[in-house]
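To start, one record:
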Amino acid sequence: MTEGDHIAIVAKNAREDVRVTLDEFKGTQLVDVRTFADFAAGPVETRGPTKKGISLSVARLPDLIDALEAARSEAQRRGILPGG
């Protein structure tokens, strides 16, 4: 997989973030949601990808969004996420 277009970066903690990327592999358009981590002391730009993440066909993106929205709604219902 080549380095794709970073769409979003979400801070996970001081040493890691989660990056959403659009990419292509062997002719298949993918969305990748992956943890990036510091492998050496330095700025955020030195972070590299880990094995922690998922990569799926862009065609499955609406299903992933639906699943995340369901998780948000359930977290709000349980009172563990404000805004419900």
In short: The mean pLDDT is 89. The radius of gyration is 15 Å. Residues 61-77 form the longest helix (17 residues). The chain has one helix and four strands.
